[in-house]
Specification:
By secondary structure, the chain is α/β, with parallel strands linked by helices. It has two domains: 3-208, Pyruvate-ferredoxin Oxidoreductase, domain 3; 247-257 and 267-356, 2-Layer Sandwich (Alpha-Beta Plaits), CATH 3.30.70. It is built from eleven helices and 13 strands. A seven-stranded mixed β-sheet has the order 2-3-1-4-7-8-9, sandwiched between helices. A two-stranded antiparallel sheet has the order 5-6. Helix 1 packs across helix 4, helix 4 (158-169) runs antiparallel to helix 5 and helix 5 packs antiparallel against helix 6. The protein is globular, with a radius of gyration of 22 Å. The protein starts with a strand and ends with a helix.
Length: 380
C-alpha cells in the first residue's frame, strides 16, 4: 500500500480556481486507476485575500483506512510533490497557521519534487529557495504567473500543464494516461488534453542537494505552549512607547515585530528619490503603513511591511517616481533610501536597471475583456 500527497501553494483569490482544478484533477485521475483520494484546502474564506499565500492538498491512497490515517495529521508534512503556482512564492510563505516564514520546500518529503510555474532559470530559483536538510528535485513548467480575480478565472491552461508535469515527476501518484482521461472527462476540451500531454513530455526535474539554496534562517517566532497560555483570551498590544521615533529625526511607525507581509508581495515599489516632491500621498494612502518618513522628508518603503498592492504607484503624481517591479528581481528587503544616501550614483544605475528590465506582471482581473486582449497582444 502507498499514499501519495500533493501540496499546492498559490496566491489567495488570484489563483484559487487554479489550485482547486489541480487538486481535483489529481483525485479524479487517481480514481481512474482504482485509487481513492480527497482534495481539500487549509486556508480559505475570509483570510484568503489578494495575493496572500494559501494552500490546498490532494491525497491519494489505495485503501480507505490508509487515506483516513494520513488525513488525521495536522497537515500533510511529507508531500511527494509541492506545487508553487507563482515563482515568487519560492522566497518563502507565511503559512496558513501563521507562525513565521515557511520555506516553500518545508513540507516536501525527501527526494520529493518542487514543481514551479516560472519563466526563470532553475539556478536563479534555487538561490531564492531555502536550503533543506534532505535532497529534493526541482522541476519547472514554463509559465508566467496565472493571476485572475475573485469571480473570474484566467483559462490559460496553467492548471492543465501543471497536472501533466505532475504525472511525469510523480507517476506513482497518477500516470499520464489516467490524467489525460480525467481532463478529457472533466473539461471536454482536446486543447487542454494536448497542453497536459505536451507539458508531461517536456518537463524535466533536476536534483537539489542539501548544500544548495538560500542560507538564511527563515523568519520565525515561538507560539506559547498550552502551559503558558493565560486564562481567557489575552492578546498583547503592540508597545507604542516608541511610536514614530526613528533615528536622526525620522518618523518610523511602530509595527508588530511578528507580522511580516513580504511573502504576499509579487511586485514591489522602487522609488526615485531625486524626483520625489514630498507630496505625502504614498504615505497617506498606503494601507499597510509601510512608508517611513526619513530625516530629509523623503519616504522610504519598509520592504518587510510592504504587501506590494501598488497603491503608492497609483497615487504618485510624478511619472516613474514610484514604479512597481516584479519581485523576482530582488534578493533582499534592504532600505532603498539608505542605499540612495550611501551612493546616489550607484542607486541611479540600480534604479534604471530595475525599471528598464521589469518583467510584465499583473495583479489579476481588471476589466471585462482583459484576458482576450492579452491573448490578442501575445506575440506567441
Amino acid at each position: 500500500m502507498s499514499t501519495g500527497s500533493v501540496e499546492v501553494i498559490y496566491r489567495g483569490i488570484f489563483q484559487k480556481t487554479l489550485a482547486k482544478n489541480i487538486c481535483r484533477g489529481v483525485v479524479f485521475a487517481a480514481r481512474k486507476e482504482g485509487k481513492i483520494g480527497i482534495a481539500f484546502g487549509r486556508y480559505s474564506d475570509s483570510p484568503e485575500r489578494n495575493g496572500i499565500p494559501a494552500k490546498q492538498f490532494a491525497v491519494v491512497a489505495d485503501v480507505q483506512e490508509e487515506l483516513e490515517e494520513y488525513l488525521s495529521r495536522y497537515e500533510p508534512d511529507n508531500n511527494d510533490v509541492t506545487i508553487a503556482c507563482d515563482d515568487t512564492l519560492c522566497k518563502g510563505v507565511e503559512s496558513w497557521a501563521w507562525y513565521g516564514l515557511q520555506p516553500i520546500n518545508k513540507l516536501l518529503g525527501e527526494n520529493g519534487t518542487l514543481l514551479v510555474a516560472s519563466t526563470q532559470s532553475p539556478n536563479k530559483l534555487i538561490n531564492f529557495i531555502h536550503r533543506k536538510e534532505s535532497p529534493y528535485n526541482l522541476a519547472l513548467v514554463r509559465s508566467e504567473a496565472s493571476f485572475s480575480g475573485l469571480w473570474v478565472y484566467k483559462d490559460d491552461h496553467t492548471d492543465m500543464r501543471l497536472l501533466g508535469a505532475l504525472a511525469k515527476v510523480a507517476p506513482h501518484i497518477v500516470g499520464i494516461d489516467a490524467m489525460l482521461e480525467a481532463i478529457k472527462d472533466q473539461f471536454k476540451d482536446d486543447a487542454k488534453v494536448a497542453s497536459a500531454k505536451q507539458s508531461h513530455d517536456q518537463v524535466e526535474a533536476q536534483p537539489v542537494s542539501t548544500e544548495q539554496g538560500n542560507e538564511e534562517v527563515p523568519f520565525s517566532f515561538e507560539l506559547p505552549s498550552w502551559k503558558e497560555m493565560e486564562e481567557g483570551i489575552v492578546i498583547r498590544g503592540v508597545d507604542m512607547s516608541k511610536n514614530g521615533k526613528g533615528d536622526d529625526g525620522s518618523y518610523v511607525p511602530t509595527r508588530n515585530e511578528h507580522f511580516k507581509k513580504f511573502s504576499t508581495r509579487t511586485m514591489r515599489p522602487v522609488i526615485n528619490f531625486d524626483t520625489c516632491t514630498k507630496c505625502t500621498l504614498c504615505w497617506l494612502h498606503c494601507p499597510d503603513t509601510c512608508f517611513d518618513i526619513r530625516s530629509d522628508g523623503l519616504y522610504d518603503a519598509n520592504m518587510e511591511a510592504c504587501c506590494g498592492c501598488g497603491v503608492c504607484e497609483a497615487v504618485c503624481p510624478v511619472k516613474e517616481c514610484v514604479t512597481m517591479v516584479n519581485e523576482e528581481a530582488f534578493d533582499n528587503n534592504d532600505s532603498q533610501w539608505e542605499m540612495w544616501v550611501k551612493d546616489k550614483d550607484g542607486y541611479d544605475g540600480w534604479l534604471t536597471e530595475k525599471i528598464a528590465n521589469k518583467p510584465a506582471r499583473s495583479h489579476g482581473f481588471h476589466h471585462i475583456g482583459q484576458y482576450a486582449e492579452e491573448i490578442a497582444n501575445d506575440p506567441a
